[in-house]
Amino acid sequence: MHLKTPLMKKITLWGEKATVRFNENIEFIISPIPIAFTPYSPPPPSYRNAQVTYKIENVKGDFEVLKLVYPGSGINIPFDNAAKTFSINCVPKLQTLDFHIMANIDFQPVVSITHRLQISKERFEYLEPNQMFIDNFVLSNSKTKNVSFKFYGKKIDKENIEIHIENPISTGVKINGQKGDFHYTTKLQDIDLMLSFIFELPYSDVQNSVECESRPESISSNNFIENNEYGKFLQNQLTRNLPVLLPECTESESTTTESEYDCTWYNDMILITTDGKFFSFHHSFLSKHSIKFAQIYQTSESLPIIINLNLNSYFFQVAIDFLNGNSDPISNAIVENEPDIFFFSDEFQIPSLIS
Length: 355
What we know:
Layout: E1 2-13, E2 18-23, E3 26-32, E4 51-60, E5 63-70, E6 75-77, E7 79-80, E8 85-89, E9 95-106, E10 110-119, H1 122-125, E11 132-142, E12 145-155, E13 160-165, E14 173-175, E15 178-179, E16 182-187, E17 191-200, H2 205-208, H3 227-236, E18 244-246, E19 269-272, E20 278-281, H4 283-289, H5 291-299, E21 305-308, H6 313-324, H7 329-337, H8 339-347, H9 351-354
Parallel strand pairs: 19-21
Antiparallel strand pairs: 1-9, 2-3, 3-4, 4-8, 5-6, 5-9, 7-8, 10-17, 11-12, 12-13, 12-18, 13-16, 14-15, 14-17, 19-20
Helix pairs in contact: 4-5, 6-7
């Protein structure tokens, strides 16, 4: 998503060409304009009053110059937007400026959530070394969905404990800025952790601009499962994706187990294999690995989305395990050598399966 954003960079000029780089997409060159004298020209100004005029050239990126300021003084330097020039005193020879621009920056939308994890030390105190308890916490306000993370409270030895939060890299979620499982080790004490969770959205503006192909027939309304059948299916079919997507609850937050939730599940894409097996996913997982799935979700007018695959459940499960990073060498060999998986990855544009 492109948004106008002010940027500032401190630059130093010394009467020579200088390259100014704000980031990989915004860059330009500042070049001094030579002063030409003729035999009939009046004598040049005194050294103390001389100025050097600079011109902005070789512009890369979409931006406009807002102002140039001598740092510390707050004095603005006039800038000619039409000619893209400005003049500064050449005494001292080195001049430092604050260069302010308004740039059109491409920002990636994400969902950012914080969660405070508090655990009393008594939960650890009476564990034996190498014992642990398993628990989970639920994040809310994630695009109106609830997301559950499983964690382990480990007693390492008599004095040390660890919090281990499951977070497969395939989900794309960052915990405290890092992908993958989160580990926090400390002395035996009360735990009071403020955690940051960043969920990447499944597609970028570049993908949005791609002209979408027509959706397969399997997405047409006559292929949707009836509501009651869909509900029964979701209650009995747990996917192997993590974090687990939980329902939006009508009961209070005091509910302690997943089985006690009495509401609607949010896995919004259902894939049906050639042998009639159902696999449900949240669109963010499929879209992360496949531009085609992202396009299907974007252009769908109703949920859930039902897609019939030209792949049986065994090979499809092998492919999903591979994407989740849970596959063994035998499964990897199947992915690499099975033609049906190749055609599946080619149809849905999943490069990691065919690279």
